[in-house]
Design a protein that fits this description.
single chain; 374 residues; mainly beta; Neuraminidase; five-stranded mixed β-sheet; 3 helices; 27 strands; 42% strand
């Protein structure tokens, strides 16, 4: 190391920047990783239908699936350290292709995180480009980007489809105020947490896509604020948003907000989640019933807690035989060729995606297989 570089590294404010540790996200802190095997949490085991090929260099973060016109299912996964996206066969887990290169131009990505599908469009959140990139399906050509003016450190997203055809896209924003001596991010004070979720109205007309900002929200009270946000999902029928609070120090769980962005005074699973609340999704029926599927990110095996959609009563938990350290999840409720009653996809240890047949989950936890009955 040259003398000038050494001198810089002696300056306290630059200690974290000179360290050789990998880039840590706000939910990644030093210390021993909690293990499901040592937690004592009751659960059943559901074997994975498949786990995709392990690709450690990609740093896989979140999945989303799309049913192509030919009936095949494409499973997308964001690759934070890879080119941008990995595309798998949703029925077999076989790798089909990768998408993107690193950069800021359309079709390029920097630290792709959250991903979601709406109609024939794929929405990809990019943390380090501070934007959401929209790709057309099946071409995977970029048709729009948005959020560059508002987003600081975006992660997860939820898309609400209005009857008018207009989309409402909610994006969590984990902006921080700096780093401590260990390189861990420091959340802002409570009063500055009022922009934890950015809201956009998106209009689509074929491959013509436009978006406008429609404000932001975030509670600033001790009970309702979100210090470390990432995953978010919504339930329009029951006027409910669940947003993962990943800050272990204050209690990792899911804050309950209304669709309008108002904290409803409840935190789901506070004290139940022992590792870190992460991915969340919804199995839903037209009558408003269904199940919330949530993630506790244990290092040895991820634990997936299931809650009643309406009452939020805890209905049980399951773990796979391999899937661990899960970030994002995706429920393909409409079904696929191999999984006619749906499939639950969960990221495995930053390296792959595992698939669970909904029929297996339902049988293990005595849940409904279809909205029509047992």
């Amino acid at each position: 190391m040259r003398a000038t570089t050494l001198a810089l590294c002696l300056i306290p404010l630059l200690l974290a920047g000179c360290a050789s540790t990998p880039d840590r996200e706000p939910d990644e802190v030093e210390g021993a990783d909690p293990l499901l095997s040592a937690s004592g949490e009751a659960h059943v085991t559901v074997a994975e239908a498949f786990v995709t090929t392990l690709t450690p260099k990609d740093n896989i973060d979140s999945p989303a699936a799309w049913r192509a016109p030919d009936g095949k299912t494409w499973l997308f996964a964001t690759a934070k350290e890879g080119k941008g996206l990995v595309v798998y066969d949703g029925d077999t887990g076989a790798t089909l292709r990768t998408v993107g290169t690193e950069g800021r131009r359309p079709g390029q990505f920097k630290r792709a995180n959250g991903v979601a599908v709406s109609g024939n469009h794929l929405f990809v959140v990019e943390r380090d480009n501070q934007r959401v990139q929209v790709l057309s399906l099946p071409s995977l050509a970029t048709v729009a980007t948005f959020g560059e003016a508002e987003l600081k450190k975006p992660y997860g997203l939820f898309i609400r489809e209005h009857a008018s055809g207009e989309l409402e896209v909610l994006v969590t924003d984990a902006y921080m105020i700096g780093e401590d001596a260990k390189g861990d991010d420091i959340p802002p004070p409570l009063a500055e947490l009022d922009r934890r979720v950015q809201r956009y109205l998106v209009h689509t007309d074929g491959d013509a896509v436009s978006a406008v900002s429609s404000g932001a929200f975030g509670d600033t009270t001790e009970a309702g604020a979100i210090r470390v946000p990432e995953s978010i999902w919504g339930d329009v029928a029951n006027d409910r948003l669940l947003i993962a609070e990943e800050d272990v120090a204050t209690g990792t769980a899911y804050r309950e907000y209304s669709m309008a962005g108002v904290f409803r005074g409840k935190t789901l699973g506070l004290g139940r989640f022992k590792a870190q609340a992460e991915g969340v999704t919804l199995w839903s029926c037209p009558d408003g019933s269904g199940y919330w599927l949530t993630t506790d990110q244990f290092k040895d095996l991820s634990l997936f807690h299931v809650f009643d959609r309406q009452s939020l009563a805890h209905l049980g938990a399951f773990a796979g035989k391999a899937v661990a350290n899960t970030d994002g999840v995706w429920l393909q409720q409409a079904g696929t060729g191999r999984f006619p009653q749906g499939v639950f996809y969960a990221v495995h240890d930053d390296m792959a995606v595992g698939a669970f047949d909904w029929r297996d989950i339902a049988a293990a936890l005595k849940l409904r297989v279809t909205c029509g009955g047992a």
